[in-house]
Structures are given as structure tokens and as C-alpha cells.
Amino acid sequence: MVTSVAQDPLIGSEVDRRYRPLERLADGGMATVYLALDTRLDREVALKVLHAHLAADPQFVSRFRREARSAARLAHPNIVAVHDQFEDGGQEFLAMEYVPGRTLRDVLDAEGPLSPGRAGQLLLPVLDALGYAHSAGFVHRDVKPENVLIRDDGAVKLADFGLARTITSRTATSATGVVLGTAAYLSPEQVERGVADARSDVYAAGLILFEALTGTKAMVGDNPIHVAYQHVHGGVPRLSDRASGIPATVAEVVTRATDRDPDRRPADGAALARLVREALRGLTPAELDGRPEPVSPGPSRQTTAPLPLPVTSVPAVGRTTEIVTPGPQPPYAGRRHRLWPWVLVLVLLAALAGGATWAFRVGPLSPTTVPALAGRPVAAALASLEAAHLSGQRTDVYSETVPAGTVVDSDPTAGTRLRRGQAVTLEVSKGPERHTVPTVVGQPQAAAAAAIADAHLSVGAVTQDWSETVAAGAVISSNPRAGTPLKPGATVSIVVSKGRQPIPLRDWTGKAANAATAALQAAGLTVTIGDRRFSSTVANGAVISQNPPGGTTLHRGDTVTLVVSKGPELVQVPDVRRLQESVAKAELEALGFTVTTDYPIGDFFGTVRATDPSPGAMVPKGSTVTMTVV
Questions:
Q1: Which of 307, 321, 446, 450 has its CA 20 to 30 A from that of 223?
Q2: Which of 59, 56, 146, 57 has the alpha carbon at shortest distance from 107?
Q3: pLDDT of res. 215
Q4: Residue 568 in 3-state DSSP?
């Protein structure tokens, strides 16, 4: 029984001191998926939690972590991004991009059959994602409508990259012969030999296109064993057996993609995408938009009865089951003269059975054992595989303890029983995993934090400082600096700009201009001296006025203009002695002096005898001159 949200202990908790599960989205055979809040970056993520029986297997967990880190390097708009992988409280978690919307399965159930144009619109992004992954050396191995997510805005994304690979790579070639996956979309080579490559993903994508165009799965049966058997022995039906109105060029693409022989399929997702686009380009608008019409079930390739066979073991989802096909029926009485053809058939079958027994017991398909390869140089490991009649495939992984060029582990592991000729994946060390500190200077704080997280690093201390060149809220510097290699999860501290530093301007009026200039320049301001003016109230060399005025807030580099006093304007006292009082007074007043008169002995002659200040003295303009008149 599914636990309700109210009973789920993860809902509302916080894991890894970062993620807060909000609601349960889905349960699967491998994990439970939650909608969670990344409290550090304030964004919603899909949080996948491995079931306890898987998390308790150290070997599985080790592989899961390596594959998750590898999948995180797949950066494509049509692949669900892997943000983080961690362990908390004995549980294994995977934080992925949250894609609100529905699955392709929902669309097919609601809308199928689809027009060729609509089918291409949904499938081409999947093929582009597969093409990108195949070019990077990844095989999905579980391509199915349930793993295709369609966001609310129409964007199409392929999910569970790396996870399907982790599970199948471990179990598909195990001694039990169990194949994990969805039977309806397994390629013949996955069912028969437990191996998969890019062409296996192409086969599954072709089956999705078949289902999109016809509204039915290509392979149907009472149980997964029956379905898996059809992939190997029946073949994919003709589209015309299921629906009418499908253009021949589109049907040909499906036929090529679902060929039982991998060598006759398109090489990878990109090759299939090219075929689909070419087929769609050749259609008329009516053909593009025309929805196929389902037809009544009839004979198809998959319903053709196989030749009588001995007991055959067919791997299936979750178990190995024997399928017994009927042998020849005895001829009825009266027709004994036709017995010899059946005898010939039995003889041929016996020969085939003997040949199969030889091939699987002592011949090229006989059992062999994966040798111990961990810790050996890759060349020596490949030689050991060749000696064990196995082939080797290399995949590079990081390791803090195993030197570069040395095998970390093998898949399957040492001691696993395989058939001769099967492939073993060697996980070869690339040395310690290091991630380069990204360039975040000038980026907004949130974008810088996201870039650091995407680089598999974490944000350390965040401090603030003034900056004349970096806008407020953007990063001034990081420590360590950009380009520094660090271990996964290492912290990167950042300094965030508070913007330009404000400089309060004081009032320098009446203060010495030299002192004002020095102080303003020390504060980062630019000083200019305006007109020097005479002032009878401000001392020479002091500030008469400033612009901007005191109390204004400025920033570094701003200009302050000072008007500096030259002191009072000086005027020379003229010699007005021996002049008549009226003439002398007029001359002095013309020069701006204030004139007073002193008559020490009376005004007998009206002649200026002396002045105070004396003739020739330099005095401030407007000063008072006293004349002595006799």
C-alpha cells in the first residue's frame, strides 16, 4: 500500500541540509520521486530516493554514484538534467531537474493514433537527446514513453539517463540471465544476449513511433515472457496491419529502426532523427496532419508460428521463465505414406539441437568467467579478457585512489559467468575527479551560485563589499579564483558588490582650500578650483563656496568645485594734500573710500593738510580715509 503524504516521514523534512521534500510524485521499482525545494538556490527539483534494498547494496550504490556523476555531464535541452547526488541517513538521493507536465504515455493514451507531424514533433526531441548522448558514449537502455516528459510549455525531455544504464549494465549480463527493462521496448539483442548499444535505443524509439502512429504497442502478449519472445522470434508487425493512412516513407523509417538485426538499423539516435526529418519533409500538409485510422486485427509477422523448438530459456523482467513451443503432431491414420517428411524434420531438428548443445557447452557460446581486473593496467585487463574469450569495452571514471589508466572495476564483476564473446565494460580510472571553478565575476549572485553548483562545487562564505566597477548584487571576486581545480563539493567563497561606495560631502566654506583639496582627494573625489575672488569676509586662501554644497552624497571620481578667496581687494590711497576739501573728497570716494573730515584748528582755508592712512598706503577697498582740513 502506498504511504499517504501525511504518513511519509520525508515530507516536510530537510535532507542534506538543503532539500525539503514537498510531495510524492511517483513510485517505481527502483525509487520514489518527490517534488522538493532546493533551499539553497530556491528552486524546485525532482528528488529521487533509492529503495532501501538497493541502497543497502554497497556495490550497487558505488555504481549508482558513478553513473549519476557521468549522467550529470549530459548537458542537452532535451535531457532531464542531473543536479546533485548524495547520501543522507543511509538513503541514496538524486536531485534532478523538475519537469512539470505529463509523460508521452499520457499523450499516447489520450490522443493516439497521432498524425505523422504530431508524432515527429514529440519524437524528434527524444532522438536529438539520444544522438547527443550516443555521441558522448552513453546508452539509455530503457527508452519508453514513460521516460519521455512533456513540460507544460511543450518542451520534450528524456529522463532517467544513466540510471537505466546502471541497472541494466549490472543485471543484463548476470549469471541468472535476468534482463531489467520494459519488455515492450526491449531489443532482440537485450533479450537474447543481455547486451545493448546505441542501436538498441534506436529500436526502442522505433517502437515508440510505431505506437504513436497506430495507437497500439507493437508487441502485445499475456505476460512479459511472451512479449520478450516476440522481439526475438516474431518481429515487429507491419504498420498497415494496425492502421491505415500512414505514408509509406514514414512506415519505411519504422521498419528500418525496428529491424531485428542491429546492423541494419540506423547507427544511433542522430541517424534516426535524420531519417525521420527527411521522411516528414517529403509529406504534403494533408499527409502531415492526417491521423491514421485503426484497422481490425489481422495476420502479421509476429503471429507466424515458429518452427517446433526445444525448451528455450528466455530472460524476462524480474525472472527467468522457460517457454515450451509445441512439437510436431503425429500424422493421422491413413496417411502413413507421408510420415517420412516428418522424420526428416525431426532429424534436422535433432541436428540443430546437437549443434546448439555443442555451441553453448564447448563451442563459441560456451560459458566463461570474468577474470579479476580491478587494479590492473587497462592493457593487461584487455589481454585477460581476450584470454577468457570475452571482449572489452572501456569507460573512463574518476577515482581518488586508483591511478589513471588502471581498472577501477568491471561490469559485470569478477567471477560472473558469461557466454564467450560477450562484452565486459572496464571502468578505467581518469585519476582524481576535479572540477574547475567557473568564472562568476560580474554575474548576479544567484546565477553565480547556480554556476558553482553546476560545476559540482558548493558556495562557501558570501561577503559584501563596495565596488566602483561591479553593479550591486553581482560578484566582485571568488576564492579560489576561476580556473582553479577542486574536488567535487569543495566550497567557493564569493564577494558580492554593494554597488558604488557613497561619500558624504562636508561643508568646506571658510576652511583653507589646501586642506579641503587634500581631504577631498583622499576620499577619491576630483577637485577643481574655480575663479579666485576678492572677499572682505573670507581670508585669503580659504574657501568662499563649493559645488555641490555640503551634505551632498557623492561617489568616487565625482568632481567638487571650490571658489577660493584672494582676500580683500587693496586700493592705494592717493595724495590729496593741498587739495581743496571738496575736490579731495570726490577723488577718494571715486576710489571707493569712505571719507571723514577732521578740523583740528577750524576750517579757515578748506585745504587738506594730511590723510589717514597716509598717501601711498595700500588698504582694502571701501576703507575709511580721514582728511585733516585747515
A1: 307
A2: 146
A3: 93
A4: coil
Residue 586 Cα to chain centre, angstroms: 93
How far apart CA 214 and CA 234 sit, in angstroms, is 18
User: CATH fold of 502-567, please?
Assistant: Trypsin Inhibitor V; Chain A (3.30.10)
Q: How many CA atoms lie within 13 A of 547 on its CB side?
A: 7
For the chain, the domains span: 5-97, 101-296, 369-429, 435-497, 502-567, 570-629
Q: What is the pLDDT of residues 91-100, one digit of tens each?
A: 899 999 999 9
Cell of 252: 519505411
Q: Which of 21, 30, 163 is nearest to 88 (CA)?
A: 21
Burial-class residue 163 by CB neighbours within 10 Å (0-12, 13-18, 19+): buried
- What CATH class has 435-497? alpha beta
The residue with greater pLDDT, 606 or 150, is 150
Cell numbers for 497: 558588490
Higher confidence at residue 29 or residue 450?
450
The span from the CA of 241 to the CA of 372, in Å, is 51
Task: Indicate which residue of 142, 197, 259, 411 is catalytic.
Answer: 142
Average pLDDT over residues 427-445: 94
- Predicted confidence (pLDDT) per residue in 374-404, tens digit: 999 999 999 999 989 999 999 998 888 899 9
The CATH number that domain 5-97 falls under is: 3.30.200.20
Residue 148, pLDDT > 90, answer: yes
Q: Do domains 369-429 and 502-567 have the same CATH topology?
A: yes
Strand partners, 320: 315
CA dihedral 545, 546, 549, 550 (to 10 degrees): -90
* CATH class held by domain 369-429: alpha beta
Q: Is the pLDDT of residue 181 over 70?
A: no
| φ, ψ at 111 (rounded to 5°) | -115, -20
Higher pLDDT pick, 575 / 225:
575
Which superfamily, per CATH, for 101-296?
Transferase(Phosphotransferase) domain 1 (1.10.510.10)
Residue 488: strand, helix, or coil: coil
Q: How confident is the model at residue 8 (pLDDT cuts 50, 70, 90)?
A: confident
CATH 3.30.10.20 fits 570-629, yes or no: yes
Bridge-based pairing of strands 624-629 and 594-598 is: parallel
142 is annotated as an active-site residue: yes
Residue 572 has, within 13 A of its CA and on its CB side, a CA count of 4
